[in-house]
Design brief:
The protein is an all-alpha fold and 94 residues long. The chain has one domain. The chain has 2 helices and no strands. Helix 1 packs across helix 2.
Length: 94
């Protein structure tokens, strides 16, 4: 019974240290990650909608999943670049 208590106390101690480390890591970087994820998702959605309308493919029967995947990927690349660096690809240079 004593060996069981020692093993459990070691496990609980290691778990607490791991949990505290994960908690500190998440608290330091989570807001930045959420901001980047929002930029990526918004830009991917916008790219699919804008390119789809521009090509005149607004009905599901006219779409191919590969086309939509490429449009979304292009939007995600632009959103990830802006979300991480905060520098626009297009526009005036200051």
């Amino acid at each position: 019974m004593n060996e069981y208590k020692i093993i459990m106390s070691d496990f609980i101690t290691k778990f607490k240290h791991t949990f505290l480390y994960i908690k500190m890591t998440i608290n330091n970087y989570l807001p930045d990650l959420v901001k980047i994820a929002l930029w990526v998702g918004t830009s991917a959605t916008s790219a699919v909608m804008l390119i789809g309308v521009g090509k005149g493919k607004t009905r599901q029967i006219d779409l191919d999943w590969r086309d939509v995947a490429i449009w979304g990927t292009l939007g995600a690349i632009v959103g990830a670049q802006f979300g991480v660096t905060n520098k626009a690809w297009f526009g005036r240079r200051l």
